[in-house]
Amino acid sequence: MTMDPPQGLLAIRHLSKTFTLPRSTRDVVTAAPLRRLHALRDVSLEIAPGEILGIVGESGCGKTTFGRCLAGLERPEAGELLWRGQPMLHTDNRARRARRIQMVFQDPYAALNPGMSLGTMLDEALLVHGIGTSAAERRDRVNALLEMVGLTPNLKDRLPHAISGGQRQRVCIARALAVEPELLIADEPVSALDASVQAQIINLLEDLRTKLNLALIFIAHDLNVVRHISDRIAVMYLGEVVETAPTEMLFARPEHPYTRGLLKAIPQPDPTKRTRVPSIEGEMPDPLNPPAGCALSTRCPLVLPDCRARHPSLVMGEDDHFVRCLNPAASTGFVFTSSSD
Amino acid sequence: MSQPIIKVDELRVTFGHTPEAVTVVDGVSFEIGQGEVFGLVGESGSGKSVTCRSLIQLFGGARPSSVTGRILFDGQDLAQLSPADFVRIRGTSIAMIFQDPMTALNPTMRIGDQIQETLCRHDGLTPRQARLRAIDLLKAVGVTAPERRLDSYPHEFSGGMRQRVLIAIALACRPKLLIADEPTTALDVTVQDQILKLILRLRDETGMAVLFVTHDLGVVAQTCDRVGVMYAGRIMEMADTTQLFANPSHPYTRALLRALPAHGKRSGRLEPIGGAPPSLADPPTGCRFHPRCRNAVVDCTTVRPPLVTVAPGHSGACFRMGDVS
Q1: Do B263 and A164 touch (CB under 8 A)?
Q2: Which chain B residues touch A199 with a CB distance below 8 Å?
Q3: By three-state DSSP, how is residue A150 classified?
Q4: d(CA A250, CA A271)
Q5: What distance in Å separates the CA atoms of residue B221 and residue B241, rounded to the nearest whole number?
Q6: Which of A41, A153, A200, A269 has the fewest Cβ atoms within 10 Å of its own Cβ atom?
C-alpha cells in the first residue's frame, strides 16, 4: 500500500474495471443510456514475495474480477500493475505474464479437461511455455510436479473423473505451478471441497509457499480459512477495498463497520458463543447504481449524514492498517470474541 | 427433551436394483421434540438430504427403489398414509425449504400468488383473505413494503429475499415441523446470519420443530439444540450441541472439528482427515469410517458398531470411544 517503490513483487495501482451490460432491443429503441457495472473501483494493493494476501468479501464485491485482472483474463480500463517496480501492461507479452502469475479456480470439476489425462494436461503447460527440451525431460518434470502436490506419479494416466475432488484441486495447483510462477492467485480454492478435504489443500498451499517462496493471493468468503492462511487481509465491498491490515490486527481491531459486521456474521463453531442480534442488516446495493457517498451508507448502523454525500478515501492508520471510513472511531470498542448473549 | 413430534426408526433408503443398488441411508434413527432444532451435519453424499426427503416423500426425478423403517409423525405412521392423505400432511404439518432459493420458486408467478396458492388450497381462505394473510407472512419474515412486493416476480428479488419468501410459503399453514435443507448454503455470510436468526425467531414464536441440515459446523453451533453427525449414510454420533462440541466422542467428529481452522487463535497446521469419503456403491465393511480412522482396530473392519449411549443424551457408534480421548 505504501506508495514508494518497495521490495514488493506486484504493486496494483488504481485498478478499475467496469462491465457494460448487453442492451436489449428495447434499450436501443428508447435510446436508453449504456448500463455499466462497476466491478472494481480504484483498487490499490501490494504484495511482497512469499507473502499470502487474503481477499475477503461477499459475492458481487469484485474479488474474482480482481484476481482475473491480475492474471490477465480481464482487461482493466484504468490503473497499472508494477511487477518488481516495472510497469506490466495488458499489451505485454501474455506468455511472460503467464510465467509470473498463475491462477487456481474455485471449481476443480470444471477447470480440468474431462477428455485429457492428468499427465497430458501438465505436459501441455510445459510444452506451450517451452519448458524442457525433450519428452523425457518433461515427463520427469510432470512426475516431480505431481509429487510436489502430494499425488503419486502413477495417477497421471487417469482422467479427471477418476480422481476425487481434493485430488483434482491438487492437479489444478500442479498445473499452475508447472511454469514456476512467483505469484499464485487462488480464487475460492477450497469452497467446493468437503470440510475434511479443505484442510489438506490449505496445508498444501502453506507448504508450497514455504518451499517455493511463492506469493499467494487467497480469495475467499470464509473468514476462518482466510485468517488461518493469510499474512495480511484486504476486505472488499462493492468493488472497493474498504480495509486492509495484517491478519491479527484486522481481527483484533477492525475499524470499518463492514468488517465488523462480517466478522460477527461468521458462524463460529462454538455453541457457547451465540448471539441473536443480526450482525448487519440489509443487502449489498445494486452495483449498477452504487451509492454516491460511502458504499456501505445504505446498511451502516453508524451512518452519518456526511457518509451519504462524501465518498471516503482509503486512509492509512498506524501499523499498515488502512480503512475507508469517515468515522472509523465510532467502531472502536468492538470486541470480536465477546459476541455472546 | 419434550414430547417428540417426529420419530424416525431404522430408516433405510435404497436407489436402483441389485446388482447396482446403492443404499444411501443405512439405518438412521432419531427423534425431534416440539420446538426443538435438530441438526443433521455431514459431508456431501452422507445421506442427509435423502433422509429429509424421505420424511416428506419428495424425491424429484429419482425415486428410491425401497424405503424401509418407521416414521412416526405426531403419533401417525407416515408409511401407512395413502398418497392423497400425504398431500394433506405435506405443506400443512410438515413443510420444507430448500438450498437453492433461485430454483425453488416458480419464475412465471407473482410472489403473492405463490404464497396465496398454499393458503387457498390448505386453509380454504378466499383470495382476499389469503392476500391479507400473505402480507402478514411477508412482514413476519422481514420483507419490507410487503403490499407492493406481493406483485413482484421472483427475478426481482435477491437471493436472501427469495429465501425469506420460501420461508413465508413454508410457514403459511403453521407447520409443526419445518425441514430446512441447507437453507443458507447459497447465501452470503451476512445474509446467512440474517436468515439463521429469522428461523430461530420464528421457532420461538410458533413453537415448531426444525430439522436443520447443513455441512457447516459453525452453522450447527449457532443454531441447533441437538445434532446428529452423519457419515456415509449412517449416524456416527448424536448429542446436545454444547456436549458435542465440548466432548466429541466419535473419531470422525473429533477429526472434523480438528480439521477446522480454529476460531480465536491462529493455530499452526491444520489436521486434515486423510483420504476421501467412501463411495456408497461399494461402502467399507464394518464401521464405514475405519479406512480413514487413526484409532481403528481389527473389529472395526468387520463389525458394524451400534449407536450406544456414552452420557445422558449423548450416543456414539464406535468401539473405541472409551479407550481413546
Answers
A1: no
A2: 259-261, 270-273
A3: coil
A4: 24
A5: 6
A6: A153
Contacts of B44 in chain A (CB under 8 A): 194
The CA–CA distances, whole Å, from A187 to A30, A76, A97, A137 equal 39, 18, 18, 31
As for the ipTM of the complex, it is 0.78
Are the CB atoms for B234 and B305 separated by under 8 Å? Answer: no
**Range with the largest mean pLDDT of B99-113, B218-232, B309-323:** B218-232
Q: What is the pTM of this model?
A: 0.84
Local structure of B282: helix, strand or coil: coil
Residues of B whose CB is below 8 A from A152: none
Q: Which residue has the cell 440474517?
A: B194
Helices (H), A54-134: 63-70, 94-100, 118-128
Q: Which of A247, A261, A337 has the CB atom closest to B190's CB atom? A: A261
C-alpha B196: how far from its chain's center?
Answer: 13
Q: Write out the three cell numbers for A331.
A: 467502531
DSSP codes joined into one string, A209-233: HHHH--EEEEEES-HHHHHHH-SEE
Ranges assigned E (strand) in B44-200:
66-73, 76-77, 94-97, 177-181
Cell numbers representing residue B205 in the block: 414464536
d(CA B225, CA B31): 12
A94: distance to nearest CA of chain B, Å? Answer: 34
Q: What is the pLDDT of residue B239?
A: 96
Mutate to test the interface with A, among B205, B223, B270 (most CBs of A within 10 A): B270
For A31, the grid coordinates are 435510446
Q: Is the pLDDT of residue A305 over 60?
A: yes
- Closest-CA distance, A274 to chain B, in angstroms, reads 6
Strand order in the sheet with A86-88: A36-47, A10-20, A78-83, A86-88
Say if residues A67 and A217 touch (Cβ distance below 8 Å).
yes
Angle at the Cα of B290 from the Cα atoms of B287 and B291, rounded to 5 degrees:
135
From the CB of residue A147, how many other CB atoms can be counted at a distance below 10 Å?
Answer: 12
Does residue A336 surpass a pLDDT of 80? no
Query: A266 at the B interface (CB within 8 A)?
Result: yes
Q: How buried is residue A325: exposed, middle or buried, by Cβ count under 10 Å (0-12/13-18/19+)?
A: buried
- Give helix B111-118 / helix B127-140 axis angle, nearest 10°: 110
Per-residue pLDDT reduced to its tens digit, A7-31 = 689 999 999 999 988 888 888 888 8
CB contact under 8 A, B215 and A59: no
A-chain residues near B216 (CB < 8 A): 195, 267
Question: CB–CB of B270 and A283 under 8 A?
Answer: no
CB pairs under 8 A between A and B: 128
Measured CA distances, B69 to A50, B7, B13, B54, B93 (Å): 56, 11, 9, 11, 21
Q: Please state, in angstroms and as integers, the Cα–Cα distance from residue B27 to each residue in B16, B24, B62, B65, B125, following that order.
A: 18, 10, 20, 16, 41
Q: Which residues of A touch B261 (CB under 8 A)?
A: 199, 202, 224-225, 227-228
Running DSSP on this structure, what letter comes out for residue A314? P
How far apart CA A99 and CA A221 sit, in angstroms, is: 27
Q: Inter-chain contact A221–B191, Cβ cutoff 8 Å?
A: no
